[in-house]
Amino acid sequence: MRMKKVLYIISSTVISSSPVGLRIKQWVDYLNAATDVYVMGKMPVKKFNIYKRIFLHVLLKLKVVPDRDVFSLPYYKRKIKKTVQNQSFDIAFIQTLPFSNYYICPFIKKVSPHTQIIVDMSDPLVINAGFQAMSAKQQKILKEIEDTCFSYIDYLIVLNEEIKNYYLALPHPPKNCMVVEQGISDNWEMKNSIMDLSLKEEVKFMYAGRFYKRIREPYELYQVFTQNHKNISLTLFSDFNRYPEFSPPQQIKISCKQPVQQNQILQEYQKYDVMVFIDNQDNYQVPGKLFELLATSKPILFIYTNSKSPSLKYIHKEEGVFIAINNEVDITSAIEDILKTGKSSYQRDTRKYTWEHLFKRMDFLFKN
């Protein structure tokens, strides 16, 4: 049986440890097994060279374009046109971020009208948590992209139902929209202790990830560990050199470490007793790390601000998730509940969030 021919278009400026970088790797593995795929662009890298970092920093400060890839569009369009003239593709599969890649959608329909267009959206545009921090010009560009490019998309893949509902309600929506969350590894296994937390000399809490101003802030959490006299400690894996404004106070119960690569994070999870999750404040985006933490089977201190957050629906039936509003009193109460309960491991069925399971939703598109 003939495999479908897929043109997979990715950015050449993606870090491999980023959510988009991890997503690209999983898509490439799936497409290689299921289709006859040609990848256009460069696979994600561990880090950029100094010249690219300076260029990206300047662009970030100027806030005049949606992203750095807008300058690569002429090159991509020439290459796409030449490629589709030499061979036909059943599907053009476009990866975003970057936002600029949406401009490719109408171009492909022009040069290859019969090619089906599928877009995998990592971050949404206008409803992006960072939208308010963009310049007025950047915001205008993203609104124009939603108005002019999305109707060319045959299938838009998004991260949750809330984002799906938003895009289907656009004046010029994509033809179809599907949900594929940010998955977890198929071989994710934890060897957890069954020791009662109340019997431990020290209960170790761990947070891994970035913080964002007005979106995901840690200050109330810091306050709890600064003033709490119980046998608890907090270790933070975050880039405080790059974002020093989120550095915790110097306190014996709080320690800081550099971020670790995805292939090492499982080893770090093993060393700690309680996972800390701080939810986004917006109504649409779910931090992908949530599914990782659920899969550890460890107790989770789930800190949130927005009662309408889509993250809440993923945890409301899960055992061992201790929910706290992002204030000192609520976080303290949740920690006390964790210690009082004492359980160090919980049964959770997270197989539904493995990449293998999630990609089965896409078999009808990519497999004959």
Task: Put the structure in a nutshell.
By secondary structure, this protein is α/β, with parallel strands linked by helices. It has helices at residues 19-34, 50-62, 73-86, 104-111, 136-148, 161-168, 219-227, 262-270, 289-295, 311-315, 328-341, 355-359, 363-366, and strands at residues 5-9, 36-40, 91-96, 116-121, 155-158, 177-179, 203-208, 232-237, 254-257, 274-278, 300-304, 321-325.
Features:
alpha/beta; 368 residues; 34% helix; single chain; six-stranded parallel β-sheet; 16% strand; globular
What would you say this structure looks like, in words?
The protein has helices at residues 19-34, 50-62, 73-86, 104-111, 136-148, 161-168, 219-227, 262-270, 289-295, 311-315, 328-341, 355-359, 363-366, and strands at residues 5-9, 36-40, 91-96, 116-121, 155-158, 177-179, 203-208, 232-237, 254-257, 274-278, 300-304, 321-325. It is α/β, with parallel strands linked by helices and 368 residues long. The strands form 2 sheets. It has a 6-stranded parallel sheet with strand order 2-1-3-4-5-6, sandwiched between helices. Helix 10 (311-315) links the parallel strand 11 (300-304) and strand 12 (321-325). Helix 7 packs across helix 11. The longest helix has 16 residues, at 19-34. The radius of gyration is 22 Å and the shape is globular.
- Helical content (DSSP H or I, runs of 4+): 25-40%
N/C terminus separation: 8 Å
> Could you say which structural class the secondary elements and strand pairing correspond to?
alpha/beta
Compute the number of helices.
13
Strand content: 15-25%
Q: What general outline do the C-alpha atoms trace? A: globular
Q: Ranges with pLDDT <50 over ≥5 residues?
A: none
User: How many E strands?
Assistant: 12
Q: Could you report the average pLDDT, rounded to the nearest whole number? A: 91
Largest beta sheet: strand ordering: 2-1-3-4-5-6
Helix/strand order, N-terminal first: EHEHHEHEHEHEEHEEHEHEHEHHH
User: C-alpha Rg, in Å?
Assistant: 22 Å
Strand count, sense and barrel status of the largest sheet are: 6 strands, parallel
